[in-house]
Amino acid sequence: MNGAEKINPYNEKESKTEQVEEMFDSIAPAYDFMNSAMTFGLHRYWRNCAIKMLKSLPHDAILDVATGTGDVAFCLYDKFRPKSIVGIDLSNGMLNIARKKLASMSHEAQKSICFKQENCLDLSFDDKKFDLITVAYGVRNFERLAQGYAEMFRVLKPGGTLCVIELSVPKNPLIKWAYNLYSRHLIPTIGRMVSGDSRAYSYLPESIAACPQREDMTTLMSQAGFTDCRYRSLTFGTLTIYLATRP
User: Which 3 state secondary structure label does DSSP give 152?
Assistant: First the structure.
């Protein structure tokens, strides 16, 4: 068990999966605003960097895990116009916002994109179904990360790509000090004020710090069967993009 699997949003009684679902249902109305505010809009830059890394790869059928309010799924559609994108999430509160956004888009987009409530540890999809799987800010919320990687490996086509976008702790001591001050004090305070959830934005920096990062993360990917596992860190190491291939 890695450290992030031991960090729960609320208590030690319910499963992490149940608590993550409850947490994101709670903060769904404030999620998009908080994402922009706490990253100073950098989440869009990080997302676009990741998508540029995917542009030369097959992407007719895409699975976006932990899709939230659909931000990455919609950007993937705009850039690649795939035949299908399925966005999945534990939280119906988040998915309902994604569906409202989709309802305002073109008929072509509505034909290509759909959203489903799914547990990433037990996916309902057939083996070898998707060309590309993306996960943005989701893997640290998996109750069992190795199982999540095994499931994504199962539904990815041979030659397909997994892309994980995840927040990370900087290595530089000075930047790490400033990062810890911001993430452990300012973000929880603002998060409580905006979302009304007293715990969700304290859980955020705790789960980031406890989650496997960089080489440790690519090792987990390799253990799940992925090859060519690699990463790229951005913005002083506060964000890491991981890519891996199913052989």
Answer: helix
Sign, CA dihedral 139-22-5-174, equals: positive
The candidate with the shortest Cα–Cα distance to 21, out of 8, 4, 40, is 8
Span 26-80, pLDDT tens digits: 999 999 999 998 999 999 999 999 999 999 998 999 999 999 999 999 999 999 9
What pairing do the DSSP bridges indicate for beta strands 113-117 and 130-136?
unpaired
pTM summary value: 0.95
What is the 3-class SS of 159-187, one letter each residue? EEEEEEEEECCCCCHHHHHHHHHHHHHHH
* Strand, coil or helix: 28: helix
94 vs 115, 155, 197, 226, CA distance in Å? 10, 23, 15, 29
pLDDT at 198 over 90: no
Contact of 241 with 49, CB cutoff 8 Å: yes
Residue 30 CB neighbours (<10 A): 18
Report in angstroms the alpha-carbon separations of 228 from 76, 129, 216, 231, 246.
22, 20, 14, 10, 9
If you search the block for the tokens 């100073």, which residue do you land on?
A: 40
Q: Tell me how crowded residue 126 is: count the other CB atoms within 10 A of its CB.
A: 9
For 14, the 3-state DSSP assignment is: coil
Strands 156-167 and 84-89, by their bridges, are: unpaired
Residue whose structure tokens are 């850039």? 79
The Cα diameter of the chain in Å comes to 50
